[in-house]
Amino acid sequence: xxxxxxxxxxxxxxxxxxxxxxxxxxxxxxxxxxxxxxxxxxxxxxxxxxxxxxxxxxxxxxxxxxxxxxxxxxxxxxxxxxxxxxxxxxxxxxxxxxxxxxxxxxxxxxxxxxxxxxxxxxxxxxxxxxxxxxxxxxxxxxxxxxxxxxxxxxxxxxxxxxxxxxxxxxxxxxxxxxxxxxxxxxxxxxxxxxxxxxxxxxxxxxxxxxxxxxxxxxxxxxxxxxxxxxxxxxxxxxxxxxxxxxxxxxxxxxxxxxxxxxxxxxxxxxxxxxxxxxxxxxxxxxxxxxxxxxxxxxxxxxxxxxxxxxxxxxxxxxxxxxxxxxxxxxxxxxxxxxxxxxxxxxxxxxxxxxxxxxxxxxxxxxxxxxxxxxxxxxxxxxxxxxxxxxxxxxxxxxxxxxxxxxxxxxxxx
Length: 413
What we know:
The structure is a single chain. This protein is mostly helical. It has helices spanning 2-17, 19-40, 60-66, 84-92, 106-112, 128-159, 171-191, 215-245, 247-252, 258-288, 295-317, 323-340, 352-358, 362-375, 380-411; strands at residues 49-55, 77-81, 98-102, 119-122. Helix 6 packs across helix 7, helix 8 (215-245) packs antiparallel against helix 10 (258-288) and helix 14 (362-375) runs antiparallel to helix 15. The chain is globular. 31% of the residues are buried.
């Protein structure tokens, strides 16, 4: 126990000395939350970004992007197909938030992993909505990059197998592609994805808060968990710093189990989680008119959930052989978790199918229960189930990390 306390005190001192990192952990979520609040306003109205799409390639990509404004996506963006000349003319007249031009040959470039340039023209008279379009387009490009790395070969083989002069593919080609995709997904599931968590929720739970709550109030719990995700990743990244400095080797060869060393990191992380959560909750009290008696339970829940996130990111560090590789792995998990787990957009404003998936993620369950603790009635059964779904995998992941840190990870120092 003394070794655990010493390890925790050491990590606390190191983190307090790294004040720029603390500012980033807290500042980035607050900045994003402020932008989202400004973009969508303080009431229930949801402004849309009017996007002109000029598809010179007449491609599948254009069809995919053009369909983004249908269904749930239409709550945030309105995409209109135009020619390039018309799009530039209308942008000159300030009729849209942005113009996206897909060049000829884009589909072939994506399939063959060759360069292609997607042109984005934004309206200088608008600030927030064009930036949302730019960020969304950046995310699309990143998604295409990783799709190319994972399924590039099967896709090239599939599109190259279409019989000449026909618009349909052979059954064997379709079956081969489906098999390749399934194999890649199975490989990713065993390497990158976190353990599968399941949670049964009562109907209507996503709207447990009163209907009159505005966007900014709904976003406060989401932004708080975004901070906890950044802190969880930051504490796990510290393993590579200690590995490089040699303190990790000294810790694991000490006459103590490696679990005490990692336990010190979790303890220090829990203290930071509690401090950040308390600051966020104190902001929530006046902003959302939350009764003071709800804060202690919410504080305990945020600290518990945030500490569990540290265990998740600790395991992800061992999937890479270098600090840079670990950064890529954790980034590939962090941002999708934030996007689908209710940290960028409240579940109440997401399509139903996406919100249902997002609530199964660790941070999604955390956000859902935090909203119930702060804004609505608490379902004890759901809270207990979420506690088990978050806590039990976190304990298992912690002991897996304790075995790995003494073996393969520290051995390479």
